[in-house]
Amino acid sequence: FPFRLFPLREHGMNWRAKPLTCQEIQAFKRSKEVMQRFTRAYQLMLRFYGIHLINEKTGELKRAENWAERFQNLNRFSHNNLRITRILKCLGEMGYEHYQVHLVKFFLTETLVKETLPNVKRSALDYFLFTIRSKEKRRELVHYAWQHFKPRGSFVWGPHDKLLRYR
């Protein structure tokens, strides 16, 4: 059902998911009711993954009370990574780029810093990171990932010479 809650302009893994048009996206964005439903759907999926949206305005996140149990599910079932990628792409389409940044940073922190989601690490680096629309924010997140990746010499998601000079 995530393809219904988080539609995209591209074909996803589900053949039943009809791609959105630019006109449909603009119509969604103009509807306060649709955008409120979208935010509720996002919060629903976050709760399923053991994440809590602290601030609707900024997109700030934290672990939910049930995080340990839900993270076990994330580590065990890799299909969730496809769903998270879809959610991230849809956040960008719907104008919630700030939500994207917080969600990707949350997963980078949990995978690289706290090491609670080892089976999500590759998806966070290979896919989640590159859903970020803002080049500046994406660079910040790549640098953040590089700072926390072990061993640093094996980091392949950005040129080391540029990462060393970043900021």
Keywords:
single chain; mainly alpha; two-stranded antiparallel ribbon; 2 strands
Compact description:
This protein has 167 residues and is mainly alpha-helical. The protein is 59% helix and 4% strand. It has helices at 2-5, 22-30, 32-48, 67-76, 79-93, 97-113, 121-126, 135-148, 160-165; strands spanning 51-53, 61-63.
Question: What does this 3D model show about the protein?
Answer:
With 167 residues, this protein is mostly helical. Helices cover 59% and strands 4% of the residues. The protein contains nine helices and two strands, in the order αααββαααααα. The chain has helices at 2-5, 22-30, 32-48, 67-76, 79-93, 97-113, 121-126, 135-148, 160-165, and strands spanning 51-53, 61-63. The protein has a two-stranded antiparallel ribbon with strand order 1-2. A hairpin with a 7-residue loop joins strand 1 and strand 2 (61-63). The longest helix has 17 residues, at 32-48.
